[in-house]
Design brief:
alpha+beta, 8 strands, PH-domain like, single chain, elongated, 2 domains, 228 residues, 8-stranded antiparallel sheet
């Protein structure tokens, strides 16, 4: 299935032209020679590097995943979608990058995935594409949160303003003012409920008296010793 690359994600005429014919998923970076990986967490904090490979794959326009494999290139050891909530640390002198998802509670173990590159050029290219993808996701998330705040929490409220996009510009102008009718209806219902509640209480009292009369004729209790 062909997916058009949205204009907001394209920065040049070439990228726009590419997006019109680009099929997804598409690999943005791959390296399988001179790459090592390591996995650590709070219980195993020492990084032990092993031979592996890494790929940056754009699964959908703007949605990029990191996929790390072992030395056979057939066994995935870690994968993660690049998101605004992840942590990325680049160590240029060591030519290493490590990334982690933010923990949601103190009970979760903090884990890191390390990538080490033997070739400086390969490291630089990976680092550039990784951070560019992260910056794009972060900018989009900030835009989404700003728009949500504008619609939901601005004062005065913008709720009816954006409702008009769907319901029509003059929709709210034709609605009757229901505030007074609603209050009256609630008051009437409350009054009726109160009256019915009083009547119900009186009725309940009579029923309880009848039940007490019936309980006067209880069957005598027979203890085991009296049965023989």
């Amino acid at each position: 299935m062909n997916i058009q690359y949205p204009a907001e994600h394209a920065h040049t005429d070439e990228s726009r032209a590419e997006g019109r014919t680009q099929q997804y998923p598409v690999t943005r970076f791959a390296a399988v020679v001179g790459v090592q990986y390591a996995l650590t967490n709070d219980k195993r904090p020492v990084a032990t590097f092993r031979v592996g490979g890494v790929m940056l794959n754009e699964l959908y326009p703007g949605e990029v995943a990191i996929i790390v494999v072992g030395g056979s290139y057939e066994h995935t050891v870690d994968s993660m979608m690049i998101s605004y909530s992840m942590e990325i640390i680049s160590d240029n002198p060591r030519q290493e990058v490590r990334f982690s998802a933010r923990v949601r509670s103190s009970e979760e173990l903090k884990s890191w995935t390390y990538l080490r590159f033997a070739d400086r050029t390969v490291y630089t290219r990976f680092n550039r594409i990784l951070w560019a993808s992260y910056d794009k996701v972060t900018a989009r998330e900030m835009l989404v949160q700003t728009r949500l705040s504008e619609i939901a929490y601005d004062l005065p409220s913008n709720f009816t303003k954006y409702c008009r996009q769907y319901l029509g510009e003059g929709y709210f102008d034709t609605l009757p003012d229901e505030d007074s009718d609603t209050e009256g209806t609630i008051a009437e219902c409350t009054g009726e409920n109160a009256q019915s509640g009083v009547a119900g209480d009186e009725g309940s009292g009579e029923d309880e008296e009848e039940e007490l009369d019936e309980e006067d004729e209880l069957i005598p209790v027979v203890y085991p010793d009296e049965m023989f």
